[in-house]
Amino acid sequence: MADLEEHDSDESRPILLDDYSESESSLCCLFLQVLIVLGFFSVVIWVSVTPKSPIYLITNAYIPALDAWNSTSNYSHNTSFFLNLEFFNPNEKMSIYYSDICINLYYSSTDALVGSSSLPGFYQGYKKTTPYEVFVNADKQLWKGNITNGTKEFKACMENDVQYKIVGFKVKHQYRIYKEAYVSVDSNGKMIGEKNIKLHHTSKTITKH
């Protein structure tokens, strides 16, 4: 009988408030840790799936006709404008599909069209740089009337679509890109001023010719 009373006494021992406090503290800590982890992964996912626009650079420009007038070469009738370009994908774990790139070249002073060219579409991995050399054939009549000795400034405009590939999946949405930059050449037809000229976003649409 005494053993039974002693057993009942042990079972009916009241739970102390400290036990509740410790349980609540543990739950709060666990909940806070879960929130921190979820927040961290949310930030990582948001950064990884927010695509950055590719970077377009003009690394060099050259007009053979201008160089010819200052030398004994036979390029005085050459109406080509040579552009060296670089396309850089700044994204982490996100590759890019480029559509055909339309390129127009204008006289910056008059906005008169010098000539047009295009590049075929291509695929680019993340953090990769793709170089291209472009030949823009100028309008002969306009070329004769505007190309003379002396420094000239031109406006290069590019337009194309890009699609992003994220973790092996190609995003359906296409992003339209319009970019432009100004490039200057000296009396010898060679690029002067800033090197690696970055093309900037513009809202203007390139007119197809």
From TrEMBL:
UniProt entry keywords in alphabetical sequence: Membrane, Transmembrane, Transmembrane helix
GO annotation, biological process: defense response to other organism
Signal peptide region: none
Subcellular location: Membrane
Keyword Metal-binding part of the UniProt annotation: no
Transmembrane segments annotated in the record for this chain: 30-49
InterPro entries for this protein: NDR1-like
Gene Ontology cellular-component annotations: plasma membrane; plasmodesma
This protein's record includes keyword Transcription regulation: no
PANTHER family xrefs: HARPIN INDUCING PROTEIN 1-LIKE 9, OS05G0367900 PROTEIN
Name of the protein in question: Late embryogenesis abundant protein LEA-2 subgroup domain-containing protein
